[in-house]
Amino acid sequence: MTMNIEALLSPAEYQARRARGFVGEVCVVFDVLRATSVIVTGLANGAGGFVPAEEISEAVTLRAKYPGALPAGEREGLKITAAQSGGVEFDFGNSPREYTKSRVSEKIIISTTTNGTRALRACETADAVAVGSFLNLTATVMWLQSRGASRVVLVCAGTGESAALEDILCAGAFCDLLARSKQTCVVEDSAAAAWSVFREAGNDLLGAMRHAQNGRRLLENPELRDDVEFCLRRDVFEIVGLMGRDGMIRRV
Hints:
The chain is 40% helix and 19% strand. The chain has a single domain, classed as ComB-like (putative 2-phosphosulfolactate phosphatase). It is α/β, with parallel strands linked by helices. The longest helix is centred in the last third of the chain and has 16 residues. The chain has twelve helices and eleven strands. Strand 4 and strand 5 form a beta hairpin.
């Protein structure tokens, strides 16, 4: 089956597309630094599921629906404080290194981030929504092929209101992997642009992050700089994370 590949490279694009919906399409959402990398890591370490929330207040409210769930997330890259949440102390920030097996096994995590969880929610009308990252890239491509998806939208979460180089690189790596697998594809210009960026910079992802807004910000923070290299590792986990109709992301 021929697979049509499109990419939405910025928040403005996927929010505009949200208005008309994604019916008949499969979305793969990338927020490499760091929301989708967090979700993949947490699921690989046994988390029962992640519930993406768009706002801090929504994350706090959702705890009533999921008793015992752990709130997590960031604003401006940093863990949400009790002052920001109206008195609720969040259990996790947005570093994948926090989501160890001992802390997340069998736990439900309610997460709200600046871009990643909003991008996931923007895609909720799609036939399926997968969580994409370098950490589980091959597993996600293989799942997509096994599903026989004909229309695929690669959604780059971005940084603030801007496109994010790391997300575009991962979308490009996704296209590259599909091509290497001999998958018959129609690659739209948007996805071809991401693929071209990856072919140019994919051999030195860490070096590319020194020129990326979010990458520079994390690399300049001594407590968070190791997250960058962690999130750029390829195929560490052989799992796929899918968002169900109930809004929860689970391992499949």
